[in-house]
């Protein structure tokens, strides 16, 4: 990885929308017609679709898409040496309200695809790079508390921070000045969206006040799973990149390990073991995060 720039103050930097990268006049980004005609479907869900357009581009588009994913990727690329997809354009079509993220098509495959067939030596090589990446992200100081880029609310839908609630008394997704404020919001919103949790609210309040304390805001990818890690094995080593930055924000320091452990799903392979070579374990906190997630979704 290249040395990151010395000026990494998040408070003084933002990405305006719409965004078009005009630094390379030889790059012709795909048109809407080309994007919608693509049969190279990489991923599709209810809110967005990801397609390949030629050998150079990947495009993510949809009405439910949040362009913060592209803004985060640009910000990380500008302020660190971490490999991320180069963003060529971020915009919303005013006619149909479809949003577009046009980005570089990276070489390689996801670590999720590669993991079953790579050696322990290759796993070690990948994890060493990932640890360096995590350390570089942690060095990005918060603009103030727990928040996303430009001191906006936390973006994570896992804890129901997406959007606002019709009841103004329901705490929003931030920003939060203290961990106690964040804890209060997590529990209030969980009980609001999940009726069965209301009777357990006092119990969780007691637990959170003891377990979730003294964790500084730390910049995190927000969805650190193998499906969001690209690897390209070369004779000289391996290129590692992170994709899908929509949940990146300044989370409590325990958050990245806890949610990454959740991403191990049924622990059907040894990824959870290698994860501790990348991230410092937060076992006590992770157990309670996993318990709350199970309460919310299972």
Describe the protein.
With 298 residues, this protein is of the alpha+beta class. It has 2 domains: 10-104, Phosphorylase Kinase, domain 1, CATH 3.30.200.20; 106-298, Aminoglycoside phosphotransferase (APH), C-terminal lobe (Aminoglycoside 3'-phosphotransferase, Chain: A, domain 2, Alpha-Beta Complex). It is built from 9 helices and 11 strands. The strands form 3 sheets. Strands 1-5-6-4-3-2 form a 6-stranded antiparallel sheet, covered by helices on one side. A 3-stranded antiparallel sheet has the order 7-9-10. Strand 2 (40-44) and strand 3 (49-53) form a beta hairpin. The longest helix has 19 residues, at 120-138. The radius of gyration is 20 Å and the shape is globular. InterPro entries: AGP_Transferase, Aminoglycoside_PTrfase, Kinase-like_dom_sf.
What is the residue-averaged pLDDT? 90
The largest sheet is: 6 strands, antiparallel
Please tell me how large the radius of gyration is.
20 Å
The fraction of residues in strands falls at: 15-25%
Q: What is the structural class? A: alpha+beta
CATH 2nd-level architecture of the largest domain? Alpha-Beta Complex
Number of helices: 9
InterPro entries: AGP_Transferase (IPR051678), Aminoglycoside_PTrfase (IPR002575), Kinase-like_dom_sf (IPR011009)
Protein name: Kinase-like protein
GO molecular function, one term: kinase activity
Organism: Aureobasidium pullulans
């Amino acid at each position: 990885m290249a040395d990151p720039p010395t000026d990494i103050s998040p408070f003084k930097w933002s990405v305006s929308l719409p965004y078009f990268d005009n630094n390379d006049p030889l790059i012709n980004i795909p048109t809407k017609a080309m994007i919608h005609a693509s049969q190279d479907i990489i991923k599709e869900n209810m809110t967005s679709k990801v397609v390949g357009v030629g050998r150079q581009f990947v495009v993510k588009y949809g009405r439910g898409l949040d362009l913060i994913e592209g803004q985060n990727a640009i910000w990380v690329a500008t302020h660190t040496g971490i490999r991320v997809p180069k963003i060529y354009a971020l915009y919303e079509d005013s006619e149909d309200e479809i949003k577009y993220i046009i980005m570089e098509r990276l070489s390689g495959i996801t670590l999720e695809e590669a993991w079953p067939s790579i050696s322990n030596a290759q796993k070690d090589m990948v994890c060493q790079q990932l640890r360096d990446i995590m350390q570089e992200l942690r060095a990005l100081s918060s603009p103030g508390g727990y928040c996303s880029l430009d001191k906006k609310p936390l973006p994570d839908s896992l804890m129901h921070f997406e959007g606002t609630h019709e009841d103004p008394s329901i705490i929003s997704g931030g920003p939060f000045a203290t961990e106690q404020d964040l804890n209060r919001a997590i529990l209030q919103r969980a009980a609001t969206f999940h009726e069965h949790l209301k009777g357990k609210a006092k119990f969780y309040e007691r637990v959170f006040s003891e377990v979730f304390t003294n964790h500084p805001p730390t910049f995190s990818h927000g969805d650190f799973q193998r499906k969001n890690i690209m690897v390209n094995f070369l004779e000289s080593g391996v290129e590692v990149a992170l994709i899908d930055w929509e949940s990146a924000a300044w989370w409590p320091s325990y958050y990245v390990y806890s949610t990454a452990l959740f991403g191990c799903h049924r622990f059907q392979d040894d990824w959870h073991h290698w994860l501790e070579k990348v991230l410092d374990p937060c076992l006590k906190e992770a157990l309670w995060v996993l318990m709350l997630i199970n309460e919310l979704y299972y």
